[in-house]
Structures are given as structure tokens and as C-alpha cells.
């Protein structure tokens, strides 16, 4: 696969990843591979979330996550991509809580779907400037 093709797929994956986390489950089937997994570095229930496999299960997780955090909004703080990996730098705010930031590393399969994500959330907003 050409690097340019993967770069376009990585860009699309990053855009749809943000849309999914902002409450648009319609992108999940196109975005996530059937054996998709996500590992959260700061998750207190890591065993529970590590067991989530596939688009349908992940959409359910995101919906529950958002329901517990009314007004949750993710914004893009920057993207990096190369070969079969894409990195999303993001910020989020929910209700009156202060902004937080995080980094998600997306591993794409040969078709450009996201196969695995490693996600780490910080306690402050990220800036790329």
C-alpha cells in the first residue's frame, strides 16, 4: 500500500474517531475493524474495558461514557500519522469541569480500519503551539 493512500486513510480515521467520541455512532462500522480493541492507560476498570472487542461493543461503551458526562465535547488539538499509525492529540470538556487533554494512538489494518487504540488521558488541556 502506498504511504499516500494510508495517509489519506489515517486522516479519515482520525476525523471519524473524533466524531465517534462526540456521539456519532454511525461512523463505527466504517472506522473500526471487527476485532477492534482499545486500551486505556488511565482507566481504573482496565480489565473491563480491555475486554471490549468490535465496533458494536465499543459504540455501547462510548454511549455509556458520554451518558455519565453530560455535555462532553472533544476537540482536535493536532494529528500525526505515518504508515499504519495515526496519533490524535485531543482536548475535552464536560459541563463545568475544566478541560483535559489526551493522546490516542490508532493502529490501522491493511484496509485502513482502526484495529487497536492506545489511549492516555491527562489532567490538563493540550496545546500544540
UniProtKB/TrEMBL annotation:
SUPFAM superfamilies with a match to the protein in the record: NTF2-like
Lineage: superkingdom: Bacteria
Residues forming coiled coils: none
One Pfam family hit: SnoaL_2
Domain SnoaL-like: 19-115
Gene3D superfamilies xref list: 3.10.450.50
Protein name per UniProt: SnoaL-like domain-containing protein
Annotated source species: Luteipulveratus halotolerans
Amino acid at each position: 500500500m502506498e504511504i499516500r493512500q494510508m495517509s489519506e486513510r489515517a486522516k479519515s480515521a482520525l476525523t471519524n474517531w473524533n466524531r465517534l467520541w462526540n456521539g456519532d455512532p454511525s461512523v463505527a462500522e466504517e472506522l473500526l475493524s471487527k476485532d477492534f480493541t482499545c486500551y486505556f492507560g488511565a482507566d481504573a476498570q482496565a480489565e473491563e474495558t480491555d475486554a471490549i472487542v468490535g465496533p458494536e461493543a465499543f459504540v455501547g461503551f462510548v454511549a455509556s461514557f458520554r451518558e455519565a458526562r453530560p455535555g462532553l465535547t472533544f476537540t482536535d488539538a493536532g494529528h500525526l500519522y505515518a504508515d499504519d499509525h495515526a496519533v490524535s492529540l485531543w482536548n475535552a470538556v464536560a459541563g463545568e469541569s475544566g478541560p483535559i487533554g489526551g493522546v490516542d494512538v490508532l493502529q490501522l489494518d491493511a484496509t485502513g480500519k482502526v484495529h487497536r487504540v492506545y489511549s492516555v488521558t491527562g489532567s490538563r488541556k493540550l496545546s500544540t503551539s
